[in-house]
Design goal:
By secondary structure, the chain is mostly helical. 71% of the residues lie in helices and 0% in strands. The chain has 2 domains: 166 residues, no CATH class; 135 residues, no CATH class.
């Protein structure tokens, strides 16, 4: 019997016969795993140049489709649950220590010019001056009880001018701290402590704005996304990056399949494939035992093929 005759015979089966076969298949994790293995091979053994075209695919990203999406409000019970949860609830002390050490390791760091662009803003300079002026005022009040009776705008102005004269040195000192993180042990300790504190935080430690302000935030975010999706400049730059990355990948990997790109050996790839397919197969069998959604969908797929 030829392959095509087998297919015809399959389609000639009565619907109940097909359903019996499907139900039997979905109870057999070995067969399901075999199917999943083939799907994984399609992805990883196909040359990546056959998966990704040399020219970027053009999608119509008109943001009007978002208008049809209704984002439901999150049930209060879920919010109440989330407000009590922090990172430390998911990690042991040993795991937390490892994460803290990982987060303080040297990595990409802004150049000093980037820090300057933030720190040298007039508003930031004013914040520094205001903070130092308040500190000096507190110190003066502690040392000189009569200072509160001697306040005047002229003295305040003189104090501000003195602080401003030292501002470049203060900013230089701050920049030195920011750009010398890895060698400053005191700063590393501060960073470690800050990360540890952040791991203890949950939503209840944050003050939420009123509901009307949250709604305004949602509208502003939606408007920003809508603008980005319709921005010709963003689309043109995305296509430019796609072509650039494609050329780099061709140069680096040639026409290799993804299995050669992501795995050092066939053994590693096969181990990955077998482990992944085994887990998925077990999950499908368990899910289908309580819900016939997979069986229903497979039956519908066969019907679609028959009517095509």
């Amino acid at each position: 019997m030829t392959f095509f005759q087998k297919i015809k015979n399959l389609f000639r089966r009565k619907p109940q016969d097909l359903r019996v076969k499907i139900d039997s298949y979905l109870k057999n994790p070995t067969l399901i795993q075999k199917t999943i293995n083939r799907q994984i091979d399609i992805v990883f053994l196909t040359k990546w140049t056959n998966v990704l075209p040399s020219e970027p695919p053009h999608f119509d990203l008109n943001a009007k489709f978002l208008n049809s999406v209704n984002l439901p409000s999150v049930p209060q019970e879920i919010i109440n649950t989330l407000t009590e949860i922090s990172f430390q609830d998911f990690a042991s002390d040993e795991t937390k220590k490892l994460w803290i050490e990982a987060l303080i390791q040297p990595g990409p760091q802004p150049k000093i010019e980037v820090y300057k662009s933030f720190l040298m803003q007039d508003e930031v300079s004013e914040w520094i001056v205001d903070a130092l002026q308040k500190i000096f005022a507190e110190i003066n009040q502690k040392l000189n009880p009569l200072s509160s009776f001697m306040k005047n705008s002229t003295v305040d102005t003189q104090v501000r001018n003195v602080i401003k004269s030292f501002l470049p040195k203060i900013q230089e000192s701050i920049l030195g701290k920011l750009t010398d993180v890895t060698s400053d042990q005191d700063l590393l300790i501060v960073m470690k402590n800050s990360i540890a504190i952040a791991m203890q935080l949950s939503l209840k430690d944050f003050q939420m704005p009123p509901e009307n302000e949250l709604e305004n935030s949602r509208k502003a975010i939606y408007k920003a996304f809508q603008s980005l999706l319709n921005d010709k400049k963003a689309l043109e730059k995305s296509y430019e990056l796609y072509r650039s990355f494609y050329a780099i990948l061709i140069k680096q990997y040639g026409d290799s399949p993804l299995s050669k790109v992501f795995f050092d050996s066939d053994n590693n790839y096969n181990h990955f494939k077998t482990t992944l397919s085994e887990q998925f197969a077990k999950a499908i069998v368990q899910a289908n035992a309580t819900n016939s959604i997979y069986a229903d969908e497979l039956e519908n797929i066969w019907k679609d093929i028959q009517t095509s």
